[in-house]
Write a structure and sequence with these properties.
Helices cover 27% and strands 41% of the residues. The longest helix has 13 residues. The chain has two helices and five strands. A five-stranded mixed sheet has the order 4-1-3-2-5, with helices on one face. By secondary structure, the protein is of the alpha+beta class. It is globular.
Length: 90
């Protein structure tokens, strides 16, 4: 099990980015969360196989149709906490 932490910046709020992320994570069998931040960015933490996490990060870098992803800061690490599903955090 691997973990990736991402912070997406650009026009990533109010464009269905969290739902887009949730659906892709679940389709890849990943667990973790996606959360809007007060500065307009979106925080994503996902856990799963390295192969599926790489696919997931590539997906985040594109974003949904209405989004404009300017930058995705990515940090690969070993999980410190275990998740059981992928959820939107409000």
């Amino acid at each position: 099990m691997e973990e990736v932490y991402c912070r997406a910046q650009g026009r990533v709020q109010l464009v269905m980015f969290r739902d887009f992320t949730l659906r892709k994570a679940r389709s890849l069998g990943l667990v973790g969360y996606v959360h809007n931040q007060g500065d307009g960015s979106v925080e994503v933490l996902a856990q799963g196989t390295l192969e599926n996490l790489k696919k997931f990060v590539a997906h985040i870098q594109k974003g949904p149709f209405l989004a404009r992803v300017d930058r995705v800061d990515t940090e690969w690490r070993k999980p410190s906490e275990m998740y059981h599903s992928f959820e939107i955090v409000f």
